[in-house]
Amino acid sequence: MPLQTGYRAISQLYAPGEVEKSRDPTTPFRFAEPVYGIGEWRSLHRITDLNQLLWQYHHQGDDYLCRSAVPVITEDYQFNEED
């Protein structure tokens, strides 16, 4: 399922008060758009570590992203091929 996982800057960083009618005129301002990723709904019985439910924030360059606190182990499924 698509999940919003963060934001990406689409403008330069403006000085505090430079952009009219911004929410907080004392904080630098930047226009941003949402970043989406693909997520998986996991039932509680499949969670082996509570940290799998928690996200941590990461800021890198113009990106502000949320990531899983620990790598999630994925399961490989094998399908029977019918002749």
TrEMBL record:
InterPro entries: CRISPR-assoc_prot_Csy2
Domain of life of the organism encoding this protein: Bacteria
Protein name: CRISPR type I-F/YPEST-associated protein Csy2
Organism: Serratia fonticola
